[in-house]
Specification:
AcylCoA_DH/oxidase_NM_dom_sf; 3 domains; 11 helices; oxidoreductase; FAD; globular; Butyryl-Coa Dehydrogenase, subunit A, domain 1; alpha+beta; Butyryl-CoA Dehydrogenase, subunit A, domain 3; AcylCoA_DH/ox_N; flavin adenine dinucleotide binding; 4-stranded antiparallel sheet; Butyryl-CoA Dehydrogenase, subunit A, domain 2
């Protein structure tokens, strides 16, 4: 690895896991990057199953969750997930991809023993995929970056809840065995664990999007009189936003981890190209216009890594860390966009082809600037905090 990752604060156990993940992704997963089962809507289910089976044999399936069900710390998880991201297929193979990783974290934190046995266990074992149903179509006026606009409703009918609405950008809905569905009751937001497939949940279409790393792609979904047993509500009616934050703050950070790994790999490829390719009598790297771009990449990669570990340390203190995760999401996504763009530029025509993963990483990271909240929404949230803090200081 030409970029040196910081291993401070890591247990020997975590570093051993991280080393095994890196070796597996580089040696076993990377050759699959040319596999025709990589589609525009993500790797096919049979490719994902094959990769997970390889990870199981290598002892790196769901590596951040230990045999006793406990998790590595957020800092240690970063060491593992960054390395899983060294290939766009790595998180899928190691069973640490979104949305499954975030859904496993949520269920592990707040799920009942029954829900954990029914849903979490097969997810950890790599036998079930999941989807998180929160975002709604803009044309309906539904919830996007502002979840308070949620239009999907739920009402009690005997010992069941009945859910109606439409959802969009639902990653992995096609082929998932679990859906975590958010809807609004008279009490407020609610969250439900739903068995999939269910005839009441109809996939209208899987959209063509700029990214292509997540199995099942991103779907528009209609929910028509879905009946869910009351025992499958997470928490109580009206507590949905509280549980959403339990999931979303760490999930923003794990996105940063995985895509940092992808950009490290893209930078390796671009650096190798610049050292091997000659133009105007010398290697490209010796031209300042190219060499300086690669130097800027190292700076951005290191700053992104520092933000990831800083936010991970905050989460490890037990603080929810919504402010910190917003700052990390903005800083890391913007830095990685610059890195990916420079990698394409350094490689010229080769950078826009599918001959290497550089082109895909560029597309994935461009989408990352929007997924889990666009940069502008996180900055707006931070600006509101600045205003609240100023008022509090001056009112006292």
């Amino acid at each position: 690895m030409t970029f040196s990752l910081d291993n401070s604060g890591m247990s020997t156990r975590a570093l051993e896991i991280a080393d095994r993940v890196e070796a597996f992704v580089r040696n076993t997963v990377a050759p699959y990057e040319k596999d025709p089962r990589r589609t525009s809507h993500g790797p096919s289910d049979d490719l994902a199953v094959e990769l997970k089976e390889a990870a199981r044999k290598a002892g790196v399936l769901t590596p951040h969750i230990l045999e006793d069900g406990s998790h590595l710390s957020h800092r240690e998880t970063a060491a593992v997930l960054i390395r899983s991201g060294l290939s766009p297929l790595g998180p899928v193979a190691c069973n640490v991809a979104a949305p499954d990783e975030g859904n496993m974290y949520l269920l592990g934190k707040v799920g009942s023993p029954e829900l954990k046995e029914r849903f979490l266990t097969p997810m950890v074992q790599g036998k079930m995929r999941s989807a998180f149903f929160m975002t709604e179509p803009a044309e309906d006026g539904g919830a996007g970056s502002d979840p308070s606009m949620m239009l999907t409703t739920c009402r009690m009918d005997g010992n069941h809840w009945v859910i109606n609405g439409r959802k969009t950008y639902i990653t992995g809905a096609e082929g998932a065995g679990l859906g975590i569905v958010m809807a609004k009751s008279d009490d407020g937001a609610c969250m439900f664990m739903v068995d999939l497939p269910d005839p009441a949940i109809r996939i209208e279409r899987v959209m063509d999007t700029i990214d292509s790393s997540m199995p099942g792609g991103h779907a528009v979904v209609t929910i028509d009189n879905l009946r869910v047993p009351a025992t499958q509500m997470l928490g109580q009616s009206g507590e949905g936003f509280k549980y959403a934050q339990v999931r979303l703050s760490p999930a923003r950070l794990t996105h940063c981890m995985r895509w940092l790994g992808s950009c490290i790999r893209a930078n390796e490829i671009a650096s190798d190209y610049a050292n091997r390719r000659n133009a105007f009598g010398k290697p490209l790297v010796d031209h300042e216009g190219v060499g300086f771009m690669l130097a800027d990449n190292l700076i951005d990669l290191k700053q992104a890594e520092l933000m990831v570990y800083w936010c991970a340390d905050v989460l490890d203190t037990g603080v929810l860390g919504t402010v910190e995760s917003s700052m990390a999401k903005v800083a890391v996504s913007e830095a990685l966009m610059r890195v990916a763009d420079r990698c394409v530029q350094v490689m010229g025509g080769q950078g826009v082809t599918g001959d290497t993963i550089v082109e895909q990483v560029f597309r994935e990271v461009r989408a990352f600037r929007i997924y889990d909240g666009p940069t502008e929404v996180h900055k707006w949230s931070l600006a509101k905090k600045i205003k609240r803090d100023w008022r509090k200081a001056h009112e006292s």
